[in-house]
Specification:
Layout: H1 2-7, E1 10-14, H2 27-39, E2 44-47, H3 59-73, E3 78-82, H4 88-97, E4 105-109, H5 118-131, E5 136-140, H6 142-145, H7 151-160, E6 164-169, H8 174-183, E7 189-192, H9 198-204, E8 208-211, H10 218-229, H11 233-252, H12 257-265, H13 282-295
Parallel strand pairs: 1-2, 1-8, 2-3, 3-4, 4-5, 5-6, 6-7
Length: about 300
Amino acid sequence: MHVLQDRFRGTGVAIVTPFFADGTIDWESFQKIINHIIEGTCDYLVVLGTTGETATISVSEKQQIFSFVRDVNKGRVALVAGIGGNDTHEVLHAFKTFDLKEYEAILSVAPYYNKPNQEGMYRHYKLLDEHTPLPLIIYNVPGRTGQNLTANTQLRIARDCKNVFATKEASGNFEQIMEIIQQKPEGFLVISGDDALTLPMIACGAHGVISVVANVYPAGFSEMVRKCLEGDYESARPLHYKYMEAIQVLFAEGSPSGVKAFLSEVGLCANTFRMPVWPVSEGHLQKIKQLVKELS
């Protein structure tokens, strides 16, 4: 477990999937973004999370993306594959069929839309634990899934599921987050799923972040996380506040709409999506343009 704790302590990045205007994948921009993040000294990449627009990407494209990121990465940082869903047996099928060579973990979102009760979500992760090819990270994001994985359920999973080594916590509920941190098994990681809350979460005992804003500003944001983990909050706070407005603006009209607007302004990819995701409004884009100038 200590090896995993070392590999996934710090800044992970939920990487976007760049598209051309016709909806095909822009592999050249994808390579630029991967290199930009790695050269910005982030610690690992999360491929095909929510930010990667996974819901509109086909199974064959997902395998292409997993393989492409692996080939561009060339072992420079750890890789996490996003594989989740609201059909437990479909997730198990994906575990069997995807080629995840050189990936070190799987991020699996809590089941969405069908709103299982806590026992159903526990049983979901228990079955994934029994069949996973790689160590697992829980992803609790009730704002998207419609159902919160309670502290009690996450702690139960952490204790009972030997292959589940971390949770990405994006509930925004600090009482819940602190309960998990206080009662978790030794070696179990609590990872921020909210850029804006990363500093206070680490101060409470979290181990890092899986970030969206670090697609755009990997060097500065990962430096903030490192300073926090070192306990140097005097150095971390100015960086936290430097990126706070960008984080707020990035999420104000939805993600990945915001982050791709930022990426387009810094020249890393086009501001294009697969429907129903849509670009931010023109007025909001002007705010982003101004922030990019201020942060450059």
